[in-house]
Specification:
The chain is an alpha+beta fold and 184 residues long. It has helices at residues 2-36, 50-58, 69-72, and strands at 39-40, 45-46, 81-82, 91-99, 105-112, 115-119, 125-139, 144-148, 152-155, 161-165, 170-177.
Length: 184
């Protein structure tokens, strides 16, 4: 009899725990959908629940940023427009896939039609990896490097020269570091 009483008591606690979990989950879903509709667009925080939202952000788990096929294939890179027209005649488009919180590190997909751009003192370090087409890099001393599909090049901060996109255009992944020197 005592065992039956203990089993009933245990089952009641389990049911109460499950109901409590379901109720808590429902409250969080409702809170999340309500709070998401009340975003303060200037600060990017929840307007009605800033203290709670700030605490939630502090505990946020960093997510993997995916470079998806739609961007990599050039299907959703936006409209072409003049790219840095003060230094060249490139017509390009792109998608910024990621920037670090301090915006010193970025990754994206960039595509250009034929043309040329001149760099006099590159303000950041950049890795370029060609997905389609090619580009011709010529430094100030006249050394020419052609970068084709499956190849990459690193331009260090301060680099000077030209980037020329030949017939057929180019699509590349770019990775840039705009911050200070490593270790400082």
């Amino acid at each position: 009899m005592k065992a039956l009483k203990n089993l009933t008591l245990h089952q009641g606690k389990v049911k109460l725990s499950i109901l409590g979990f379901i109720a808590w989950s429902a409250v969080m879903v409702i809170f999340g959908s309500f709070a998401g509709k009340h975003m303060d667009t200037d600060s990017g925080q929840q307007a009605l629940f800033k203290p709670v939202y700030a605490a939630t952000l502090a505990a946020e788990v960093k997510q993997i940023i995916r470079l998806d096929n739609a961007h990599l294939s050039g299907k959703s890179l936006g409209e072409y427009a003049p790219y840095e027209p003060e230094t060249g005649d490139l017509i390009a488009r792109g998608y910024d896939s990621f920037y670090s919180d301090d915006e010193n590190f970025g990754i994206g997909i960039w595509e250009s039609k034929p043309g040329k751009i001149t760099y006099t003192d590159l303000e950041y370090d950049e890795l370029m990896y060609v997905l389609q087409g090619s580009m011709v890099m010529t430094n100030e001393q006249g050394k020419v490097v052609t970068v084709s599909v499956g190849e990459g090049v690193v331009l260090p901060k301060g680099w000077a020269g030209t980037l020329e996109v030949p017939e057929g255009g180019v699509r590349k992944i770019w990775v840039s570091y705009m911050g200070g020197k490593k270790g400082q």
